[in-house]
Amino acid sequence: MQAWKDYQAENKDRFLDELLGLLRIPSVSADSKYKADVARCADAVKEHLLKAGCDTAEVCATAGHPIVYGEKIIDAKLPTILVYGHYDVQPADPVNLWTSGPFDPVIKDGKIYARGACDDKGQMFMHIKALEIMAKTNTLPCNVKVMIEGEEEVGSGNLGKFLEDNTEKLKANVVLISDTSMISMEHPSIESGLRGLTAVEIEVVGPNRDLHSGVYGGAVANPLNMLCKLVASLHDENGHITVPGFYDSVIDLTDEERKTLNLAPFDLDEYKKDLGINDIWGEKGYTTLERTGVRPTLDLNGIWGGYQGEGSKTVLPSKANAKITMRLVPNQKPSEISALFVKHFNSVAPGCVKVTVTPGHGGDPVVTPTNSPAYLAAAKAIKTTFGKDPIPTRGGGSIPIVALFEKTLGLKTVLLGFGLDNDNIHSPNEKYDLANFYKGIETIPYFHKYFTESF
Ligand code: BES
Ligand code: MN
Ligand code: MN
After folding, report:
1. Which of 67, 70, 191, 242 lies at a CB distance of 3.0 to 4.6 Å from 57, suitable for a disulfide?
2. Residues labelled catalytic
3. pTM for the complete prediction?
């Protein structure tokens, strides 16, 4: 549509400037030090929603960080799209590995470098600008509701209640999210599923104080040694997870589904080169695309204890800790899997140390249909702006609230993501290509148009 193209062309520098403004706000949800910045970011998002043409926008307080909600209702008889995104970001650590400040965005080689550039400020902001384009050119084809939360990166603990308390307000026909990746600009794709997640924390306690490893070593269990041994036993030599019952509820893909999944372009050499690894690793019998898309995993996210300062210290530490998350696939339930983990870990823990396993947050896996009117509208939108049909893929990451959209609001989700796997989300030097940012803004209005036309 020419009016959309023209509006974007005339305003593209301002769009970018506005995004850079949001990226300068360190809205790190995990760290209470940034609480005021998170709140400031919520206010900024609200102002952007109003400026984009929303009739109303508000910052809604929760027991945690606020949720920003805005809407533009043009006709109750028309379909409604509920856009979801998050304005909170992951911590920037380790900051010394960034080549520019994480909250001091710079443009280099056509890419925006900043924490949140891709996940999810850059992608969420595309929707606000797409809405502005449609509103200001009087071409909005349907009603739009926008909900941008501030706790996605810490598990969306308060969003479930917000959905329950606001089922009427959030009534819609579909949820639209840009918070995932596509294969590349040459191979546009749409994720048709997300893995679930369950987190556990482990503490292993030995003697009542740190000990001299010469005086006591060899005679008293070292909690760090014990923890490492236990953690190492969680995978067998084929990369399978050893927790009994872990795979029982996994729905295996049909041969046909596996074949389709593996049709997606994947270059192993490129993959290794990009990551600087000599070889890949994973569960025997599965391809890399299957390992990240449709198989469950178990990973240490942190393990600590003992002396970590300069030089060596001959100590037998009294305590060791670890944080683990497991990625889940249909039909694994987070609470069931963490219960299996707790049971197993306690059963293999030796009596010479005290082991405590505490289950943490989680989220259900989801599969989104690839034959629904909403998916087809998204595919047509991609085809319109990329000139190619999108490849359906399965995403390895998690967005815990997606399962609740279905459970609480009865809504299916379309994952119209424009990130790339190597955008360094959650890592130092997170980036988002300007080309992807602008292409996203160009594509989103077509989704609105085609989705509305499908009614
Ligand atoms: N946007 C990501 C999820 C994602 C990334 C999905 C790439 C697909 C492809 C999201 O912000 C995220 O990081 N989620 C967390 C959830 C957790 C904190 C509960 C994740 O996946 O680790
Ligand atoms: Mn995200
Ligand atoms: Mn994230």
Report:
1. 70
2. 88, 152
3. 0.95
**Tally of residues, the chain:** 455
pLDDT, average across residues 151-171: 97
Kindly report the CATH number that applies to the domain delimited by 196-250+296-363.
Answer: 3.30.70.360
Domain boundaries, the chain: 2-194+365-453, 196-250+296-363
Mean pLDDT value across residues 402-414: 97
pLDDT tens digit string along 242-254?
Answer: 999 999 999 999 9
Ligand 1 centre and the CA of 415: distance in Å? 12
pLDDT at 22: 98
**70 ligand 1 Cβ < 6 A:** no
| Whether residue 152 has its Cβ less than 6 Å from ligand 1 | yes
